Amino acid sequence: SGIGIKLMAVLLRQISKPIANRLQVVALKSDLFKRICMNLSQKVHSTDVKLRMKLLGEKHSLNSTHSTVRPLNEKKAIENAAYLLSEGFIFSIAGSLILFEAYRTRRKELNRRESVSDDIKALQDEINYIKKKLDEHNVEL
């Protein structure tokens, strides 16, 4: 039922933000998360700063040793990674809902087409049957 699916989608959207916030809190407390994401966050920050400088007309290339990027402090890097995790979760929920709705719509359209095709075949069979009966009737006359 379409209404039930839409209500489920709204429910998932509503609960995804608190879940994402909880993921962020747990991630901030996890030593494993801190170790894994510290380096990644620094690389993302460095690439971001270099790209911004390039867009602003910085003469040096992205790989230039002349333009060094000051690294984030550990707390900021971990907060950025935790924020990225929570936003990634919300994005994955929203993306999944969109993909599911597209799949459901496509499946519904295919079922409709199959139904129409079956109806057309049944009508063609009836027409052929009627033509055959008319031919038989004409032969008798």
UniProtKB/TrEMBL annotation:
Entry annotated with the keyword Cytoplasm: no
Q: Which InterPro entries match?
A: OPA3-like (IPR010754)
Cite the source lineage. Answer: Eukaryota, Fungi, Dikarya, Ascomycota, Saccharomycotina
Please provide one cellular component term from the Gene Ontology annotations of this protein: mitochondrion
The entry assigns this protein to a family as follows:
Belongs to the OPA3 family.
One GO term of the biological process aspect: regulation of lipid metabolic process
UniProt feature coiled coil, ranges = 106-140
Q: What is this protein called?
A: Optic atrophy 3-like protein
Sorted alphabetically, which keywords does the UniProt record give?
Coiled coil, Membrane, Transmembrane, Transmembrane helix
One Pfam family, short name please? OPA3
Q: Which residues cross the membrane?
A: 81-103
Q: Which organism is it from?
A: Ascoidea rubescens DSM 1968
